[in-house]
C-alpha cells in the first residue's frame, strides 16, 4: 500500500469516526451545557492521547521535543482549529439555522485550497476544483441551507467556522512534515482544551462540573472518538495534501446521516440521499483522478 493510499484510508476512516460524535451529544442531552461538552470532548481526547504517548514512548519526553520556531504553529492550530472553531460554531448556531452552520462548516475544502495557494504556494488542480464543486452541490442538497444573506451575523460566524476548520488541515499538513501524528495530536488537543475552558463562562448558562458518571459517560465516549478520529486524520495529512484531506473529511457528514439512520431511525429524505451521492461522487472522482 502506497503512502498516498494510507493517507486516503486514514483520513477517510478518521472522518467516519468523527461523524459519530452526534450520537454521544444526543445521549448526553441537555444535562451538560454545550460548551462544557465541547471542552470535555477535547479534554478527554487529550487524556487518551497522553496515555497513548506514555505507553508508546515508555515514559520518554519525545512529545516535548519541539523546535521553538514551531511553537506558533502549534498554538495557532490548537486555538484556531479547535477553540475558535468551537466558539464560532456555537455563535453561528445561536444566530442562524443549524443547517446553515453545518453547510458553512463543510465549505472548509474551499478555504483549504485558498489558504494552501496563499501560504504554501500549492498549485490549484482542475480535478480539485471539480471535486469541490460537486461536493458543495451535494452539501447544499444535504443540509438545504436557507436565507444565507438574511441571517448575516450567524452566517458570518459560520464562514469563520469553515475557515478555522480549513486552517486546521493546512497547519496540520505543515506540522506533519516534521512531527509524528501523536505529537501533533497531543499538542493541538492540549492547547485546544485550554482555549475552550474560558469559553464555558461566556456561552453556557451555568458552570457545573459536578455531574453524575452516567452524564459524563457520553462525553468521555465522544472524547475517545475525537482522539481516534484526529489521530487518524493527523496521520493521513502527513501522507496527502491538505486539499485532498479536506474533501475526504466530507465522509464525516455522510457518516453522520448513516449513524442517524442506524441509532435514531432518522430516515434521510430523497434530497439528502441525492446530496450524499454528489458528495460521494466528488470524493471518488478526486481520489481516482489523483491516484491515476
TrEMBL record:
Pfam families tied to this protein: EamA
Species of origin: Candidatus Roizmanbacteria bacterium RIFCSPHIGHO2_02_FULL_37_24
Domain EamA intervals: 6-143, 153-287
Keywords, ordered alphabetically: Membrane, Transmembrane, Transmembrane helix
Transmembrane domains' residue ranges: 7-29, 35-54, 74-95, 101-120, 127-146, 152-171, 183-203, 215-233, 245-264, 270-289
Keyword Ion transport (UniProt): no
Protein's name according to its UniProt entry: EamA domain-containing protein
Gene Ontology CC entries for this record: membrane
Amino acid at each position: 500500500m502506497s503512502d498516498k493510499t494510507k493517507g486516503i484510508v486514514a483520513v477517510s476512516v478518521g472522518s467516519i469516526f468523527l461523524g459519530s460524535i452526534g450520537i454521544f451529544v444526543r445521549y448526553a442531552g441537555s444535562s451538560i451545557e454545550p460548551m462544557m461538552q465541547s471542552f470535555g470532548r477535547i479534554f478527554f481526547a487529550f487524556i487518551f492521547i497522553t496515555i497513548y504517548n506514555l505507553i508508546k514512548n515508555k515514559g520518554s519526553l519525545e512529545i516535548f521535543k519541539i523546535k521553538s520556531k514551531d511553537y506558533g504553529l502549534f498554538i495557532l492550530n490548537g486555538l484556531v482549529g479547535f477553540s475558535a472553531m468551537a466558539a464560532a460554531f456555537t455563535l453561528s448556531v445561536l444566530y442562524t439555522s443549524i443547517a446553515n452552520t453545518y453547510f458553512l462548516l463543510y465549505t472548509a475544502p474551499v478555504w483549504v485550497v485558498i489558504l494552501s495557494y496563499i501560504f504554501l504556494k500549492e498549485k490549484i488542480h482542475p480535478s480539485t476544483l471539480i471535486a469541490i464543486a460537486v461536493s458543495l452541490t451535494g452539501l447544499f442538497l444535504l443540509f438545504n441551507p436557507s436565507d444565507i444573506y438574511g441571517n448575516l451575523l450567524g452566517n458570518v460566524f459560520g464562514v469563520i467556522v469553515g475557515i478555522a476548520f480549513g486552517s486546521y488541515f493546512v497547519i496540520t499538513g505543515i506540522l506533519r512534515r516534521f512531527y509524528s501524528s501523536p505529537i501533533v495530536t497531543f499538542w493541538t488537543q492540549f492547547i485546544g482544551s485550554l482555549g475552550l475552558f474560558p469559553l464555558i463562562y461566556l456561552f453556557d448558562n451555568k458552570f457545573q462540573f459536578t455531574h453524575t458518571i452516567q452524564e459524563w459517560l457520553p462525553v468521555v465516549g465522544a472524547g475517545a472518538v475525537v482522539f481516534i478520529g484526529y489521530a487518524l486524520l493527523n496521520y493521513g495529512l502527513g501522507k496527502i495534501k491538505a486539499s485532498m484531506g479536506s474533501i475526504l473529511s466530507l465522509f464525516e457528514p455522510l457518516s453522520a446521516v448513516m449513524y442517524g439512520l442506524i441509532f435514531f431511525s432518522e430516515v434521510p429524505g430523497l434530497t439528502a440521499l441525492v446530496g450524499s451521492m454528489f458528495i460521494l461522487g466528488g470524493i471518488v472522482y478526486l481520489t481516482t483522478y489523483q491516484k491515476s
